[in-house]
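User: I'm writing a tutorial on reading structure tokens. Could you give me a worked example: one chain, its sequence, then its tokens, then a sentence or two explaining what the tokens reveal?
Assistant: Sure. Here is the example chain.
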Amino acid sequence: MNSKALHIFLRFICVTLLCILYYWIGYRLDKSSFWLLFSLYTTAFATSYYLMQSGVKLKYLIGLSFSLKFIFLFAIPELSQDFYRFIWDGMLTVKGYNPYSHLPVELMTTTEFNSESFNVLLYDKMGELSANNYSNYPPVAQFVYAFSWQIAGENLLLNIVLLRCFNLIAELGILIYGLKVLKKINLPKRQILIFILNPLVIIESTGNLHFEVMMIAFFILVLYQLSQNKFKTAAVFWSLSALSKLMTLMFLPLLWAFFRKQKTSFIKSIQTALSFYIIVGLCFAGAYFIFWDEAFIGNYQSSLGLYFNNFEFNASIYYLLRWIGFQFAGYNLIAIFGKTLAFLAFLIILWLSFRKKKIDLKKLFIHMLWAITGYYLLSTTVHPWYLLLPLVLSVFTTYKYMLIWSYLVILSYAAYQTDVVNEKSLLITLQYAIVIVSLSLEIFYPKSFNRS
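And here are its predicted structure tokens:
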């Protein structure tokens, strides 16, 4: 067998293997079988990386990525139970209930809700944590969930398929406009494969139905509009992005130096920035006004506050501080450390916002990537799907540490080997040690990565 025939054979084997792997993850895998998941994920990651480097034409790999996503179309997610809450929120909105004002645990005490078997299914499957807290999914997400319920009703699988289709459409938008942005900043188009062919994206977005890709799709549209100097349109899309998932709000201060880069006077750049922020604010206020009631502010604040005062999962620096706190105080100081680390992350964003007077679009991507990396390294909670945003930002830079992190974050699923979440400290330490070392090498020894 000659070299060309061997490569064709290997590519065929890789494609076939990926189809089998994703079918197994989507339809046969049990969440508690971590080492099987890790083996399947590692194989998928290595196989995908080989195909990315093998010289296969970009258009074929794009087709492959979406074909692999469609394998999950009729799969009921096993690795995450969040989608049950998505469907629950959609049901509430359609029935005329405000999803921000009603706890599932309280509604299930009423005859209207506990008499319906489908409601009981959603309630039981969403988990105790979700059932005892108000929804924190922003309005765009709520509209999508409501639209899905309006069509599918109590058909669980049809709800799943519809939500999955929304994510697939969002990923198509990421592809189309991501390629346009890569061309604009003179980076290879193949870099889009870091995101669309990545097993983390395929599993967490298409497989587990997490809504990050909708946020990212709008955000890529923002960046494309910024590259075209269409700032008002960009502001509207930024609002839609943050109204899908709130994370992109953290990047707003970073725009100041970008607006200064425009070929206008200082006064004009201030006017542009202010008009941008005003449009974002008005769109934001208008969307939330639809759900406004007397209890809204308190309920939403309490729900968001859980991320800083209660939630902890797959953290790095916070876990080190938590251990130190136990040594001195004898109990978990998350209420102090959570807020302190969040404030420190805010200071990092401010520093990135004003460290340079003017930045171009390329530098804006880098600042955003550093900002969200710093935020997650200081965060108390880093679920695997949270990394989709920094991963897509890395596509528009020459940094590769996010590719490494997108592989290693699967180690966090070891916590679900039993009914009670039990994190493995050794695996978390291994994950972050490798990530921090790779990040440090890229920053302090850029020549080793062909970057000056």
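What the tokens reveal: Residues 156-184 form the longest helix (29 residues). The two ends are 42 Å apart (CA to CA).
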